[in-house]
Amino acid sequence: MISYMFEESCKICGGKHRTGFCTTSEGKEMKEERIIKDAQEKVSTLLGQYGIVSTQEQKQLSSECLNEFLVRSSHEFVNLPTEISDQTKKKIRRMLGLGETGARELSSEERDKQIEMLIMEMRGYLEKLRVHQDDILGMILCGSRMDNQKMPAEESDVDVVFIFKSGFHLDPSTPEGEKLLYHLRDYTDKTASDSGFPVEIDELYGEDIFFKKMTQADSEMLIWGWNADAVRYIGEPLGELNESSVNEYIQQTLTNNVFKEKRQNRIKEAAQKLLNT
After folding, report:
1. Residue 214: phi, psi to the nearest 5?
2. Is 108-261 a domain of CATH 3.30.460?
3. What pLDDT is recorded for position 1?
4. Longest C-alpha distance within the chain, in Å?
5. N or C terminus: which one in the chain shows less Cβ crowding within 10 Å?
6. Which residues, other chains included, contact 179 with Cβ-Cβ below 8 Å and sequence gap of 6+?
7. Could you tell me the residue ranges of all domains in the chain?
8. What DSSP state is assigned to residue 194?
9. pLDDT of residue 108
């Protein structure tokens, strides 16, 4: 006779399984959801224990916000010392979409205006950069400064992905690619936006490689395209697509089912890793 002493009732069929779920696709999905939920609760508890968020803020943290934190920073979070600096606390709060404690929170409308102003500034930045590097077709703006749900600090940088003409040597492991990257970083390190924001290069793509990675819904896109609403291309047409069409194409790709599945897998992996620590 099989003993079910240490087994749980299945949430699907009511039977007994060691995991508490049957092996149907619905059961597997529920198991993954529980793993993610448990990890979210662990993160929320740690945030409260470290004094990073208040009890009220803990209740208001969205599932989407916690998922992004799980993927981007939870592995570092569990290794923090017993006491952490105010600077680190502020950084974590910004990642969670929270402003500095006691500071006035900006509305979505106010953030939208800031974002539109930034886009205008970066158009000018691109024009100046192309005087030095005319093989650049455009750039993708991303990161916290483009996210109207985030409250970036004054010193937060502008994250960019540069798109070059097809066939350009961009691999930093090659002499040509290394020289190009050094040249670009030298320029961006010395040249801030008109508002004084530092510029950070996230990726470099040739036009052909960009379309290839987008078509494949490459997981690399998660680096800069985690939040599709915080991504904007500016610059010359790519292929047969003008700027507006490029942005529509990016949005369609970052929100399609293939990309969503890869995104969900990344969340699940991060959640499982956190629970195992």
Report:
1. -65, -40
2. yes
3. 44
4. 79
5. N
6. none
7. 8-102, 108-261
8. T
9. 86
